């Protein structure tokens, strides 16, 4: 998710509804020839989301204050800010925000309006506000809005300060955030049908659990998605494209057995740095050290797998999978070989990466209690 704005106000507002996003400031000329306020904010917000070619969902907004059917420009200096507030004192005006959301080739544009009535303001409090609250540092004419000046309003107050997050959330919820779609999957082994007609969707940022009895084919589904096992019928789409078109780094796997998953000839630093080296990443040492801190294994940096417990080894396996910041992780029974205390540490790591990096997980397990603890969605595999 990308917020296309330099506004700290908008950044703080968006954090109320979205936990993980990046900031990109578009370089556009905002002096457009449009007098209609609604058309102005919608057109400008759309120009912003079109300014860069980014695959992620992009959000852009533009907010204006309208008085006497005219858009008020940003005050050029303190005197102009004072005169603008005097003009609005005791008067009604309204705030418009145009918002555009771009996802792929689809652009959704809408606007929100909030009607404001200022109370009567004394000259002293106007001057004091302009001198001490730095309204000129804030973007646009809406920077002079202050909650203490408002007598009444009708609409979203979040809109007044730059982003109508209630309406934005409604529009975002309508978008399809499917990262993986499995359609009518069938797997046959030695003429025996392991499973067939398997279909499900996984949304970005969720922990999607696949549960079922041992031997029913849960791990096979994971291996098919990661690309190490072929399927016989069906279709798998990753980010709306055939799974075969994916980048290897975008989908990683946490395997069940920590004793067979690590190269015994490499120390922990080498194990974590190898994926970064292969993918020609920068700042390798910094990234490895950050991961070691998250895994709580910094003191084992130059130790070898043989020096670690099973739980510590499994944390390294998690780190190997996460070091490239993949979009999707397949976690195949990652806690089944561990004691309860160590299990919880692995689950906590999965929850951490899901929250902090917005990583999507497919969590494969036969343990319903664990699945209930961490899942946002559960798919039960039965014959």
Automatic annotation (TrEMBL):
Keyword Transmembrane applies: no
Keywords: ATP-binding, Cytoplasm, Hydrolase, Nucleotide metabolism, Nucleotide-binding, Transport
Coiled-coil ranges (or none): none
InterPro entries: AAA+_ATPase, ABC_transp_ATP-bind, ABC_transporter-like_ATP-bd, ABC_transporter-like_CS, ITPase-like_fam, Maf-like, P-loop_NTPase
Compartment(s): Cytoplasm
Cofactor: a divalent metal cation
Cellular component aspect of the GO annotation: cytoplasm
Species annotation: Oceanivirga miroungae
Site (Important for substrate specificity): 9, 63, 145
Family the entry assigns: Belongs to the Maf family. YhdE subfamily.
Catalytic activity: dTTP + H2O = dTMP + diphosphate + H(+); UTP + H2O = UMP + diphosphate + H(+)
BP terms from Gene Ontology: nucleotide metabolic process; transmembrane transport
Annotated CDD domains: ABC_NikE_OppD_transporters, Maf
Protein name: dTTP/UTP pyrophosphatase
GO function terms (MF aspect): ATP binding; ATP hydrolysis activity; nucleoside triphosphate diphosphatase activity
Lineage: Bacteria, Fusobacteriati, Fusobacteriota, Fusobacteriia, Fusobacteriales
Domain of life: Bacteria
Stretches assigned to the ABC transporter domain: 180-382
Record-listed E.C. numbers: 3.6.1.9
Predominant place of localization: cytoplasm
Active site feature: 62
Functional note: Nucleoside triphosphate pyrophosphatase that hydrolyzes dTTP and UTP. May have a dual role in cell division arrest and in preventing the incorporation of modified nucleotides into cellular nucleic acids.
């Amino acid at each position: 998710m990308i917020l296309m704005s330099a506004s700290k106000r908008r950044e703080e507002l968006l954090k109320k509804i979205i936990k993980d996003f990046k900031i990109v400031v578009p370089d556009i000329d905002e002096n457009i020839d449009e007098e209609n306020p609604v058309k102005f904010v919608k057109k400008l917000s759309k120009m912003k989301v079109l300014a860069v070619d980014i695959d992620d969902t992009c959000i852009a907004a533009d907010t204006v204050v309208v008085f006497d059917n005219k858009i008020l420009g940003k005050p050029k200096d303190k005197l102009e800010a004072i005169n603008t507030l005097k003009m609005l004192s005791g008067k009604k005006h309204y705030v418009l925000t145009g918002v555009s959301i771009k996802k792929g080739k689809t652009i959704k544009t809408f606007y929100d309006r909030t009607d404001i009535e200022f109370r009567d303001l004394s000259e002293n409090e106007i001057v004091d506000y302009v001198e001490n609250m730095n309204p000129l540092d804030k973007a646009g004419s809406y920077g002079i809005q202050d909650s203490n000046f408002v007598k009444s309003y009708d609409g979203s107050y979040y809109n007044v300060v730059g982003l109508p997050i209630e309406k934005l959330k409604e529009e975002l919820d309508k978008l399809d955030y499917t990262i993986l779609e499995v359609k009518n999957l069938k797997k046959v082994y030695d003429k025996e049908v392991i499973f067939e007609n398997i279909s499900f969707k996984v949304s970005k940022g969720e922990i999607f659990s696949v549960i079922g009895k041992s031997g029913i084919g849960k791990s096979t589904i994971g291996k098919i998605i990661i690309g190490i096992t072929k399927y016989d019928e069906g279709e798998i789409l990753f980010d709306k494209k055939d799974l075969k078109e994916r980048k290897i780094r975008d989908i990683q796997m946490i395997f069940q057995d920590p004793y067979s998953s690590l190269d015994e000839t490499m120390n922990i630093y080498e194990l974590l740095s190898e994926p970064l080296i292969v993918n020609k990443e920068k700042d390798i040492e910094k990234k490895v050290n950050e991961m070691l801190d998250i895994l709580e294994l910094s003191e084992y940096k130059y130790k070898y797998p043989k020096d670690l417990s099973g739980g510590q080894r499994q944390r390294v396996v998690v780190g190997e999978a996460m070091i490239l910041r993949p979009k999707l992780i397949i976690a195949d029974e990652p806690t089944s070989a561990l004691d309860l205390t160590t299990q919880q540490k692995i689950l906590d790591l999965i929850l951490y990466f899901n929250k902090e990096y917005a990583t999507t997980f497919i969590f494969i397990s036969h343990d319903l209690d664990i699945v209930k603890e961490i899942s946002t969605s559960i798919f039960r595999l039965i014959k």
